[in-house]
Amino acid sequence: MEDILMISLSSNNTVIALANKILIPGIAARKFPAVDVIYSDGGKSKLPIVFDASGVDASKLAVPEASLVCLSFRANSQAMVHSWSKPFYDAFSESKSLQLNEYCVQFETMKIAVEGCMHGDLDKVYDTIKYIENTRNIKIDLLLCYGDFQAVRNGKDMDSLNVAPKYREMKSFWKYYSGQEVAPVPTIFIGGNNEASNYLWELYYGGWAASNIYFLGYAMVVKFGNIRIDGLSGIYNARNYCLGHHERPPYNDNTIRYVYHVREYDVHKLMHLEKPIDIFLSHDWLLSITDYGNWQQLVCCKKTFQRSSKELLEANLLLEKLRPSYWFSAHLHCKFTALVEHEEGGRVTKFLALDKCLPGRKFLQVGEQSSTCKIVVNGLRAGWKTEEPNLVNFLKQLHLTNPLILTFSDDYSEDIPNEDEDDLEDDAEWNNENRSS
Prior knowledge:
By secondary structure, the chain is α/β, with parallel strands linked by helices. It is built from twelve helices and 19 strands.
């Protein structure tokens, strides 16, 4: 938690305004008598404040009546907040002609766990999260899994899993689907190349795969708190990239693989997302992402690593267009980090790939992301301030491009309009009709 504390003094029981914190040092130097302010690290500051121990009379202060004096600072702990606020409470709390107001703007962070390839081992991953919560004394707010989730509900689903028959197992998702277990932390996942594809196709536009477990869809965006999360399921294959989604269960030896191949149509939709974007999920790695990290260490740890079609070329178009703060990938079963600077001194995308869920492997990591801020007045919550990303344009893009989606094996790349040709002009009537749906 990070706080900005603003203490204002006003007469006539009226808070006139809050001063800009840039102006506060000058105001404080002119208006306040002397007091020591003790920091949490033991350091001290002295402000020119003088007051009578019997109380403070507004008429004796160098402040005009019905005026406001505001002091603001940034703190990283409640102890630091208290070290600043207590001297002012002690000085002015008994005054009958002055009113003391404390405004504490708290910027809360969300703790997010990210996981590589789940491979159906939900129990193991959730147990790991519980262990981290207990040992670090924290609460994880969200789990993101970027592919090979294996949402297998029953034996029939295993027939749609592109895994050698001897390796097909029910694992533990069925318990969460049936309601026998409930995910202890909200979970969002995308699809990879080892999925119960028949089930995920039922949730093409995204939806609840089980209680507290959400499938992001083949190419969709959701908002969790104030965090925008975009995802592209599947892996790239040049042969099927421009074809329609023609696969139907029961899958044969070919369609069981084709069904999870990324389509140009899905990438096209995501190209029209509005900025800013916080997190992007893909199963495939970005093409040439190794150029932005320690590739020597990667080759040393994963000797079989080589560049191939497993890296998603088209995802680089999304990276250049959307420039998310974070990009998470899996698929290659190893940990790798990289920093992509889009322009000198500009926005940076942090890339992280993780391993699969096995003992001794780096398959899960916990980080923090700023989420919301709330305003507390005199210890009472005054309300939440949130920024609502406008997703209506993306819904309209789905509305306009839905007729383009093909369910047979034809090349439809020529039917997809160029970005400049898309009819994305603001349609107020359509937006109003569909905003709440």
